[in-house]
Amino acid sequence: MMMDTVADFLTRIRNANFVYHEYADAPYSKVNEAIAKILKEEGFIKDYEIREEEFKRTKNPENKKKLIRVYLKYGPNKERVINEIKRVSKPGRRIYVGKDEIPLVKAGLGVAILSTNKGIIPGYKARKLGVGGEVLCYVW
């Protein structure tokens, strides 16, 4: 059983990005979809889609699972758009910040993704809305 689905999702993206894969597949969750949406809006990935696929071990059509497929983005000379993607708050140690403590990632070149009472949003939107929350990850 997987404990931290967000860390698994980010690790799959990080590993696929490292070896220049076209896309990365991960188990679907609403949190993963919200993170993928932010990554797309911020220009770190091309796109994402939700897919239903059958389990590989059985032929029963009822055994389907939802996946999220993230299409990675690279520059013209195979330069990575995502230089690093880092999980901050973990199940063993949650990191919460107030509205005045929201971190700037790489002096504003990156983005902090927060889970707030307004949903999962980037750090600059949380500052604008005046809300704090749990820091899920940094991307730059």
Helix content: 10-25%
Number of E-state strands: 8
CATH C-level label: Alpha Beta
Major sheet description:
5 strands, antiparallel
Distance between the termini: 30 Å
What is the total number of structural domains? 1
Mean pLDDT: 94
CATH architecture, by name, is 2-Layer Sandwich
What would you note in describing this structure?
Belongs to the universal ribosomal protein uS8 family. It holds the Pfam family Ribosomal_S8. There is one protein chain. About 25% of the residues lie in helices and about 35% in strands. By secondary structure, the chain is of the alpha+beta class. The protein has a single domain (about 5-140), classed as Dna Ligase, domain 1. The two termini are about 30 Å apart.
Short synopsis of the structure:
The protein is an alpha+beta fold. It has helices at 5-18, 30-41, 123-129; strands at residues 23-27, 45-54, 64-72, 85-87, 96-97, 111-116, 119-122, 133-139. It has three helices and eight strands.
Topology (SSEs and partners):
Blueprint: H1 5-18, E1 23-27, H2 30-41, E2 45-54, E3 64-72, E4 85-87, E5 96-97, E6 111-116, E7 119-122, H3 123-129, E8 133-139
Antiparallel strand pairs: 1-3, 2-3, 4-8, 5-8, 6-7, 6-8
